[in-house]
Every structure is written in structure tokens, then in C-alpha cells.
Specification:
This protein has about 575 residues and is α+β, with helices and mostly antiparallel strands. The protein contains twelve helices and 23 strands. It has a 23-stranded mixed β-sheet that branches.
């Protein structure tokens, strides 16, 4: 009995010693006193653990952040415990932030984090003792809310530029040497990014869900490009994303995103670039002539994404992108004056090269896409629209990273569509990727038989004539141009063409028929047919100089219009400039 009592006493002393070791050494917190009101008994370690975590937060951030925890529950298995934290909030201490700002020691980015519940499983004593080596089974976070507020402080510029040159691995291993987590689950998250200097860069992600499997951060996975954020597999989805563009004229939006790391695929639904203003209000917001775009696709898929380049180089790098339906509408009005000076380098590929985001997409497929170019012409008081419906196209070499651009490489577009809703047409564009600064490009358009009256919605407001009747046998145009000038060879074959010339009424603004002039034009000037049976077809070669206000679409429309009108014999003085 005496021996048994000694054994029992020894065990009791070990337990008491362990408790005292944990309570007064391992969980000691010099600046935070445990809240005994939350203790369930005198042996309850939860208040002390909360105080310890608060102390760790303060020490780890040099007092910048404060941690509050509503409650904490601990599984009895101390060596491999399950910890649940509820009502957690990490907030910035504004007084400390102000002090550090005065000392030029405040960070540019300040974080606010809150979540309803955080569960950690597999947390052992070793993880508390050695904060640079962490091994956990699972982390589960419910309803997290995280915001980042950015204030660009000039004294951080040099240090931030140095940090930007570090890889993601180097940044993380400044704080830890090893992290192993079997799974991380985050659901119903909200992420907000605010920029106090550039409010148009504010971003908000809602309904964010993240599932990371087998996360391992150490020297063995440093250059493992098969992993996503050092995880063997990952699934990420989020709800509505919307932000203003830098000029505050548009909203960029995405209804939802889904990332499948193992499949190297990113899918976005309902992607749009929407004007914030009506056509009239948009013109009022701009002092000079500006194109108004409206872009939308119900589904966009990036395939064979290179995650390593995304996280370490910040680049969109994939083998293929598919755009499943949607539209691209371009509207321009000549009511506003042209921009002063020469406004060049706004061709599609030039815009791509100017983007700060590195892009390397080998192939882009458009499926059943619609495009419309609308131009309001003040002399007629009307707008004309060219429609390309049901576009199926392939774009190769959508690349703006010089390292991936080889000699003689072109960005090519090869498309089929329905012109003016019903005429099958083939369109090709090519952009010289090495001479992009000069805007070197080529284009071709061709289609077969068509009813010429299908173009009246364009010729009436933009050309001041109507096609009374006429049959197009075939049309093709070859275009070559650059920043300053474009030229084209037009081959338009047709028969039985009759036009009605129009003039703008001086009082009510409605177009009227020029009866006598139209008769003279159709009889003596306008050629009612053009064929090459006898080798005498009119095949005009034309060129136009680029006005400083011309967009890429407008520039090409002018040369197509000029070549077409010369093909039918319209006097050059009647052709709109």
C-alpha cells in the first residue's frame, strides 16, 4: 500500500508539475492577464492560452496588431490536440500605427481579420515551443472576413522594391522554415482590398471558399512547379467580384470564379466590362472623342495554367483560353473634338503590350461571340452599326512578355462570322509582335454572294446613300498598315446596283432623297456592275492617313469604306472623310 501511495503521489506531482509548467511558463504572457471570468474551473487553461496567443500576436507584430478571442475549446489530448477558437478578431492598434508612421516605420498594408470559428487539429506542444517549425493535420475557418488597407508611404518605396524581387518562398521563409498541413478549409469568406490613394483599385471578393490539400513549405517544395501555393491540390471558388477601372468610366465584374489546381484550370463566369454611364452621359464625362466599350462573356476558361509563374512572377501564363459566347460593342461619336496632339499606340496588340500584367497565352478560342462597331456621324445626325455575329475565332500568341517573343513572331486572328446578321464572312488580322511600336499589321475580309441592301443601316448614316437594289457576287479586301497610314486593295464584284443619294435636311434633320442628283449618279457616275470577265474590273488601291482620334476599328472602317465606294464609282468628294 505504501508503495502504491508513493507511485500515486509521484504521478500526481508529475501532473501538477506539468500543469504549473504549462500554466506559468509555457503560457506566460507579460502584457496580458488571463480573464478568469471565462474559466470553467481553477484548472482551466483556456484564459491563459488566450492571453498567450494575444502576447504572441503583440510580440510578433511589435505591438501593431491586437488579438481578441471570444472563446477557445481544447481537446484533452495535449500532445496532439484539437483547438477551436470562436469570435476571433485581429485589429490594428491605431496609436502604434501613428507612432511608427512618425518614425517612418509603418507598413504600407494594414490588415483587419475576423472569423466566427477557427479549428486547428494536430497541434502539439512542439508547435508552441518552435514557431518556425509547424506541423498540423487540419485548419478549418468559417466565415472569415479579411481587409487590406493600403497607404503608399514614400519611405517604404525602396524596401518594397527589394521585396518585390524576392520569390514567394523567400518571403514566407523569413518567418518560418517548415510548414506542413494536411488540409486547409475556408468557407463563406469575404476579402476586401482598399487603396486610400487610388480608390478605383478597391476590390471585393465575396463567398470565398478555399480547399488546400497536403500543403508543404520547405526546401523540398521550393521549386516544385506541380504544386499550387505549395499544395499538392487546391480548389478555390468565390462569388461576385466588382471594381472600377482606373479612369472610373467602367465597372469590371465577375460573378464567380473556380480554380482547380490539379487540372491547372481557372474558370470565370459572367465576366464583364460595363460602362458606368449611358452613351450621352459617357460623352459628357470625356472632354475628347473616346470609344465606349461594352464587353461581356458568360464563361471564360484558362487551361493549363502555370501556377508557379503566377505566384512567383505575377504573370498569367497558360496554354489556352476559351471564351464561351458573349459580345464586344464599340461606340464612338464625333460630337466631341479629337484629342489634341497625335494619339497613337492604341491598336489591340499595342494595348496588350502596355498592360502592367505579364501575359503569355499561346492560344485563345472564341466561340459564338458577337461584335458590333457603332459610329455616330453628326452631319447625318444618326449612328451606323457594323455587325459581326456568331464569331468563331482563334487567336495565337497573345503574349506581352518579351522573353517569350521570338523573331518574326506575329499575333494572328483567324475568324468566321455572320456579317450584318446574315452574310458568312472570313476575317484575318495579324500584328507584328517585334515591331509593335510602329503598329505594323495586316488584315483581310472576304465574303461571297450577298444582297447589297443589307448594308443600308451603315450606308445611310455614314455614307449618305441607300442601296435601292443590288447583288454582291463577292467581296475581298487586303489591308496593310501602321500607326500613321493604312492601305488596301479592294475587289468588289457586283451587278444591278442602284443607289439613292441623300442629303441632311436643314430644318428637321431628316435625310431626304437627292432625286435629280441620284438619277444622274446612277446613270452617268455610279457603275451598276463590276465584274472581271473581260479583265476590266475596277480594283482600286486606296490609302488613308490616320487622324489622331482614330481607334483601330475606325481606322480600318475608313479604308474599307473608301475602297468600297471607289469600287462602285462614288465621286471622292462625296465620300465622308
Amino acid at each position: 500500500m505504501k508503495k502504491t501511495g508513493l507511485i500515486f503521489l509521484g504521478i500526481l506531482l508529475v501532473i501538477m508539475g506539468s500543469y504549473l509548467f504549462i500554466r506559468y511558463w509555457l503560457l506566460r504572457a507579460k502584457d496580458f492577464k488571463p480573464d478568469s471570468s471565462k474559466a470553467r474551473s481553477v484548472l482551466d487553461l483556456r484564459p491563459a492560452l488566450i492571453a498567450k496567443l494575444q502576447q504572441m500576436m503583440k510580440d510578433g507584430t511589435r505591438g501593431l496588431y491586437r488579438l481578441s478571442i471570444q472563446d477557445i475549446n481544447i481537446d484533452p489530448a495535449i500532445s496532439n490536440t484539437l483547438v477551436k477558437l470562436t469570435g476571433v478578431k485581429i485589429s490594428v492598434d491605431s496609436n502604434v500605427l501613428s507612432q511608427r508612421d512618425r518614425l517612418k516605420d509603418a507598413p504600407n498594408d494594414v490588415y483587419e481579420i475576423a472569423f466566427r470559428e477557427l479549428a486547428l487539429s494536430g497541434l502539439g506542444i512542439g508547435d508552441l515551443l518552435n514557431r518556425r517549425h509547424i506541423d498540423l493535420d487540419n485548419i478549418t475557418v468559417h466565415y472569415p472576413e479579411m481587409s487590406i488597407t493600403r497607404t503608399e508611404r514614400p519611405y517604404n518605396k525602396q524596401a518594397e522594391e527589394a521585396t518585390d524581387t524576392l520569390s514567394l518562398y523567400e518571403r514566407l521563409t523569413k518567418h518560418v522554415s517548415h510548414v506542413g498541413i494536411q488540409s486547409i478549409l475556408i468557407d463563406h469568406g469575404v476579402f476586401v482590398s482598399r487603396n486610400l490613394k487610388h480608390i478605383n483599385r478597391n476590390t471585393r471578393f465575396e463567398n470565398l471558399s478555399i480547399n488546400l490539400q497536403d500543403l508543404l513549405l520547405d526546401s523540398t517544395t521550393r521549386r516544385d512547379r506541380s504544386r499550387f501555393f505549395f499544395s499538392a491540390n487546391a480548389y478555390i471558388s468565390c462569388g461576385r467580384l466588382q471594381r472600377r477601372t482606373s479612369d472610373s468610366l467602367y465597372f469590371f465584374g465577375v460573378d464567380s470564379l473556380f480554380l482547380d489546381a490539379r487540372a491547372h484550370r481557372l474558370t470565370a463566369w459572367q465576366v464583364s466590362l460595363k460602362p458606368r454611364y449611358s452613351k450621352a452621359a459617357f460623352q459628357q464625362k470625356n472632354h475628347y472623342r473616346t470609344d465606349r466599350f461594352d464587353i461581356h462573356t458568360p464563361k471564360l476558361v484558362l487551361r493549363q495554367m502555370h501556377w508557379w509563374r503566377l505566384f512567383n512572377q505575377g504573370s498569367i501564363d497558360c496554354d489556352q483560353m476559351d471564351i464561351e459566347g458573349g459580345h464586344f460593342y464599340d461606340y464612338v461619336s464625333d460630337i466631341r473634338p479629337a484629342k489634341p496632339g497625335i494619339h497613337m499606340r492604341n491598336f489591340p496588340y499595342q494595348v496588350l503590350r502596355s498592360l502592367p500584367l505579364p501575359i503569355n497565352i499561346k492560344k485563345v478560342n472564341l466561340h459564338h461571340f458577337d461584335l458590333a462597331y457603332t459610329e455616330y456621324y453628326s452631319p447625318s445626325g444618326e449612328a451606323g452599326t457594323i455587325f459581326f455575329d456568331n464569331i468563331n475565332a482563334q487567336i495565337t500568341n497573345m503574349i506581352n512578355k518579351p522573353a517569350y517573343i521570338s523573331k518574326n513572331m506575329w499575333c494572328n486572328v483567324n475568324a468566321s462570322a455572320l456579317l450584318m446578321h446574315k452574310i458568312p464572312v472570313r476575317v484575318k488580322f495579324g500584328f507584328d509582335m517585334n515591331r509593335y511600336q510602329n503598329g505594323i499589321y495586316s488584315a483581310s475580309i472576304r465574303f461571297g454572294k450577298a444582297d447589297a441592301t443589307a448594308f443600308n443601316t451603315v450606308t445611310r448614316p455614314l455614307g449618305f446613300f441607300l442601296v435601292k437594289r443590288g447583288e454582291i457576287d463577292s467581296f475581298s479586301i487586303q489591308i496593310r498598315g501602321d500607326n500613321a497610314r493604312t492601305g488596301a486593295e479592294t475587289r468588289l464584284f457586283y451587278h444591278d446596283l442602284h443607289l439613292t443619294l441623300l442629303e441632311k435636311h436643314k430644318l428637321d434633320g431628316k435625310s431626304e432623297k437627292k432625286t435629280l442628283l441620284g438619277f444622274i449618279a446612277n446613270t452617268f457616275v455610279i457603275k451598276n456592275s463590276n465584274s472581271n470577265e473581260k479583265g476590266d474590273a475596277r480594283l482600286p488601291i486606296v490609302s488613308v492617313d490616320r487622324a489622331r482620334s482614330n481607334s483601330f476599328f475606325n481606322f480600318n472602317w475608313r479604308v474599307v469604306r473608301l475602297g468600297t465606294m471607289k469600287s462602285v464609282g462614288v465621286p471622292e468628294k462625296l465620300i465622308p472623310k
